[in-house]
TrEMBL record:
Repeat region (WD), residues: 113-154, 328-369
UniProt source species: Longibacter salinarum
Descriptive protein name: Uncharacterized protein
Keyword annotations: Repeat, WD repeat
Pfam short name (any one): PD40
Superkingdom in the source lineage: Bacteria
Length: 376
């Protein structure tokens, strides 16, 4: 009987059809096994690459903690790390007060900057990624051109000029449109000042009698929010600098604040993350971090908020339900800060162990480490 050959079989080269119909079942099975082995060996390198890039997805919380505890002291990071607007780079501060731009994929240093005359707290990006603003204990803010690595301006008029911590500028934040730069002098007297980058002039100043620990722009750039040592949050109109709202939470010492969408999150000495509605100050959730909250961050376009604390823990919460999404022992000692990548998929934490660690927002997987011999 003639073999029935379908349309797809007619597309095969004639020698293959000849071999198939002239071979025994055993010979065909041998051919199939040989082809299967060939395909497996061909795809092995790709499988290994995939496994390596996803290796920490299935690593348990206990295994990550053991890895963090056993890591030698790092040397590449301090205080806080900021993602570039395009998400390809990150700024890292060194314990010596200098800072660098690193490639987020390779972790390699792309540019190094000398810092300032005294300890440099952080270096933040302008929204277009063309400029960095570094803030320092010396009471100044330095502006840097990212492409050339050159310092283009020194702003020294915001501080009381004291060479102690009291005169330090602890934060510098560009407005959403990049035109203005808000700077925070944390310690008594606390103050917020705003610099117009185009006019090269100060356009707003708010003086406080106590310490101001945290500052954030509203998403529209029309308000600035502060977290203060009296346990209250304030919103200030921009550029008038007038108090718009004051919200008190059950915390006598607020240390950080973040604003995104309709939510505000603050944390401090009580070890609680307070999530509030931005329109009326209504408390949505009180989330138990467990230890002094050093930094809090909202993950935009999601229900998640993150906090890091003095016990080294990173905790990510669902602020809609109040459920703990995941927790990780992120740093071997104090966890200083947490920031969110522009695509909202990655968290960067920095700790007293002088590492930056990168975490997947959805899974809690450890995606990468920057610092010392464990950089990978």
């Amino acid at each position: 009987m003639d073999a029935v050959v379908g349309p797809r079989m007619r597309e095969c080269p004639s020698f293959i059809l000849t071999y198939i119909f002239s071979s025994s079942r055993a010979e065909i099975m041998t051919l199939i096994r040989t082809l299967s082995l060939f395909l497996a060996l061909s795809l092995l390198p790709l499988a290994q690459v995939w496994a390596q890039s996803h290796s920490d997805v299935t690593v348990s919380e206990e295994e990550i903690e053991e890895r963090v505890r056993s890591a030698p002291r790092g040397n590449a990071a301090n205080n806080i790390a900021h993602f570039s607007p395009d998400g390809s780079r990150i700024t890292t501060m060194t314990p010596g007060g200098t800072f660098a731009i690193r490639d987020l994929e390779t972790k390699d240093i792309l540019q190094s900057f000398p810092g300032q005359s005294r300890y440099t707290y952080e270096a933040t990006w302008s929204p277009d990624g063309s400029m960095l603003a570094s803030s320092s204990v010396d009471g100044t803010v330095h502006l840097w051109d990212v492409d050339s690595g050159q310092r283009v301006a020194v702003l020294d008029q915001f501080s009381n000029g004291s060479p102690t911590m009291g005169g330090g500028i602890t934060e510098a934040r560009f407005s959403p449109d990049g035109r203005y730069l808000a700077v925070l002098q944390r310690y008594t007297p606390g103050r917020v000042a705003v610099w117009d980058m185009q006019e090269e002039a100060e356009v707003m100043r708010v003086e406080r009698s106590g310490k101001v620990y945290g500052m954030a722009w509203g998403e529209e750039g029309q308000q600035i929010y502060t977290a203060e040592e009296d346990g209250a949050m304030y919103s200030w109109s921009f550029p008038a600098g007038k108090e718009v709202d004051r919200w008190k939470v059950q915390d006598d010492y607020l240390f950080d604040i973040d604003v995104a969408g309709s939510r505000i999150v603050v944390g401090g000495r009580s070890g609680v993350l307070h999530v509030l509605n931005i329109d009326d100050g209504r408390i949505i959730q009180r989330l138990r971090q467990g230890s002094f909250v050093n930094r809090a961050a909202i993950v935009p376009n999601s229900p998640f908020v993150a906090g890091v604390s003095s016990d080294g823990m990173l905790k990510v919460w669902n602020s809609d339900t109040g459920a703990l999404h995941f927790q990780r022992f992120a740093h071997n000692a104090n966890a200083y800060s947490v920031t969110v990548s522009p695509d909202h998929r990655t968290l960067a934490t920095v700790g007293q162990d002088r590492y930056v660690r990168l975490w997947d927002v959805e899974t809690g997987a450890l995606l990468g480490t920057i610092g010392g011999t464990e950089t990978r």
